[in-house]
Write a structure and sequence with these properties.
By secondary structure, this protein is of the alpha+beta class. It contains eight helices and 13 strands.
């Protein structure tokens, strides 16, 4: 059966200590097609080349591992409450027969309504691309609000690991459904021309971590067909060097220090977002 699944770190989390007004998220067991279905369309040696094994259980282990990474990112963001796994129970057989978005928006969302979930997180393994499709659904709106693709093919000597990709994708999705107001507060180090270090108003509460890259954006109004539309323009990049507490982090300015200096001096609000 396809049911809510969370990693061990979720099992030991005191789930309901989070304030009740926090949006609730149900994490559904990530979907992996049957071995026959995968092998019918894809030669086993393709997986042998990527993972050193054509064993179906190895693929299942990889999918289970990335489930854990998704759970890790969700737990780290303290603005959300996680629904206990036993409260969601989806029939895998029905899911296999009806892979359409209509099925998800109907049957799965109705399950979410029954347990009081505001959002449902789903993951689907794509054998064609050897990737995972992450989708988050709004129960109230009955539609997908964001979708991300995480490449599961290992890249030798790459620092962009699967864990890093998963956490970044999850963070981007959570930031989209509940955008935080992370601002650059003040300069910590610099000279007369540019900023070299800065304090931002975001910390552990948002799941931010050391060595994480951020983009600094400003709001720019553009006139399009007679209408004024807001656009966020990236002006700098930061690297978190220390997460002080739930609310603040110290950052090194990687690029755009001169622009940060000028915009902050003019009173412009500088918004910080995780870099994907």
């Amino acid at each position: 059966m396809r049911k809510l699944v969370l990693s061990t770190c979720l099992a030991i989390l005191p789930l309901f200590l989070v304030a009740q007004q926090n949006p609730t998220v149900a994490v559904v067991d990530f979907f992996l097609p049957s071995q026959n279905e995968i092998w019918k369309a894809h030669k086993p040696n393709r997986f042998q080349a990527y993972f050193g094994s054509s064993d179906y259980s190895k693929v299942r282990k990889i999918v289970n591992t990335v489930e854990g990474y998704a759970a890790e990112a969700l737990v780290a963001d303290k603005r959300f409450t996680v629904i206990e796994r036993q409260q969601l129970n989806l029939v895998k057989g029905e899911r296999e027969l009806q892979k359409s978005e209509d099925f998800i928006d109907g049957y799965v969302v109705s399950q979410g309504q029954g347990i009081g979930a505001d959002y449902i997180l789903l993951g689907d393994f794509n054998p064609d691309e050897v990737s995972l499709i992450l989708s988050i659904y709004s129960v109230a709106d009955e539609k997908t609000v964001d979708k991300r693709i995480v490449d599961l093919k290992p890249v030798p000597n790459s620092t962009n690991s699967t864990r890093t990709q998963m956490i970044a994708a999850m963070q981007a999705m959570l930031f989209k459904i509940q955008p935080p107001k992370i601002l650059l507060v003040r300069e910590l180090d610099g000279n007369s021309r540019k900023m070299k270090a800065a304090l931002i108003s975001g910390g552990a509460k948002y799941g931010l971590r050391e060595k994480q890259q951020l983009e600094v954006k400003i709001s720019v109004m553009e006139e399009v067909d007679g209408q004024q539309l807001e656009r966020l323009e990236t002006i700098a990049e930061l690297l978190i060097v220390k997460v002080e507490d739930d609310n603040f982090s110290q950052c090194e300015v990687v690029t755009g220090g001169d622009q940060l200096k000028n915009h902050l001096a003019s009173g412009q609000k500088l918004y910080c977002y995780p870099k994907l």
